Write a sequence for this structure.
């Protein structure tokens, strides 16, 4: 990255970090939600954008991180940091145990398999007494929205730096090779199974951390909300809208869509539920590679960029 881009990113982070001290309580609460969604989109970007495996199982990582914090703080009376570590440990164990068989599947078979994982986890957790069963768990309240905001922002910066490292590392190049042609990558010496499982686990770490922060913030957790599949759909939409396989695309997509969705839900409630559906159609048909690709190519191609994508999708 050029010095100008680094300076611009640092300025954006500084402005975001100052928001709790100058913005309203409503803005801070919106910011926490938006930043955590951006973390989830960035986490999905690792397995979906770089490795090319469209995972619907990242909501499981989110739920495990949430329950890790809840169980540690409520049942074992441990501090928040220990709960985060426990949630991450469960997410990584899950990624390795189920990633090995599931990641052997490809395309829609992989998507369907990961989609079922969330429903399986809801059924399991609903019958575990330690997790509160169907009733859920109530965490000790901490009325400190600025702290949760800064934690969410710090986690987003860490996730984005990790994705930036992927673009410069052998591991990241291996994931890109798998995305482009997995058989050719294997022939060239890439351990595709190991790379995919590591990407799945790394993706799970950030989703689990986001889930843990969110659980402590809202102070209540139940199986349906912890393993909500619609949250996985949101993170995919945000990553695809911003640009999968890019460093800043998922962040821009998550923050932008969160802002527009918030405006629609407050001003035109009836349209809010339709918004993400329209975004999916627009993103797939008009800009399948996301906003990042539009920014790169629109200056050269102009409006023909969208026409070419429409023809490619046979619309």
């Amino acid at each position: 990255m050029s010095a100008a881009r680094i300076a611009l990113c640092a300025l954006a982070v500084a402005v975001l970090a100052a928001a709790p001290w100058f913005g309203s309580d409503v803005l801070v609460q919106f910011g926490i939600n938006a930043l955590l969604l951006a973390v989830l989109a960035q986490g999905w970007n690792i397995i979906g954008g770089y490795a090319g495996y469209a995972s619907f199982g990242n909501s499981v990582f989110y739920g495990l991180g949430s329950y890790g914090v809840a169980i540690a703080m409520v049942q074992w009376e441990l501090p928040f940091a220990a709960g985060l570590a426990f949630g991450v440990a469960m997410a990584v164990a899950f990624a390795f145990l189920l990633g090995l068989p599931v990641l052997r599947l490809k395309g829609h078979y992989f998507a369907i398999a990961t989609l079922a994982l969330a429903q399986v986890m809801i059924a399991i957790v609903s019958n575990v007494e330690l997790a509160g069963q169907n009733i859920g768990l109530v965490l000790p309240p901490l009325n400190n929205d600025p702290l949760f905001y800064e934690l969410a922002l710090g986690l987003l910066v860490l996730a984005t730096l990790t994705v930036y490292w992927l673009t410069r590392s052998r591991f990241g190049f291996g994931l890109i090779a798998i995305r482009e042609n997995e058989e050719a990558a294997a022939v060239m010496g890439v351990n595709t199974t190991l790379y995919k499982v590591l990407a799945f686990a790394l993706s799970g770490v950030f989703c689990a951390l986001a889930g843990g922060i969110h659980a402590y913030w809202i102070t209540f957790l139940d199986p349906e909300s912890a393993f909500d599949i619609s949250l996985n759909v949101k993170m995919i939409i945000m990553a695809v809208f911003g640009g999968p396989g890019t460093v800043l695309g998922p962040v821009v997509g998550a923050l932008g869509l969160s802002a527009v969705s918030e405006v629609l839900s407050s001003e035109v409630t009836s349209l809010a539920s339709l918004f993400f559906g329209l975004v999916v159609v627009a993103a797939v048909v008009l800009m399948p590679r996301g906003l990042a690709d539009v920014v790169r190519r629109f200056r050269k191609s102009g409006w023909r960029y969208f026409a070419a994508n429409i023809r490619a999708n046979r619309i």
User: Anything to note?
Assistant: The chain has a mean pLDDT of 88. Residues 11 and 17 are 10 Å apart (CA to CA). DSSP finds 15 helices and two strands in the chain. The first helix runs from residue 3 to 22.
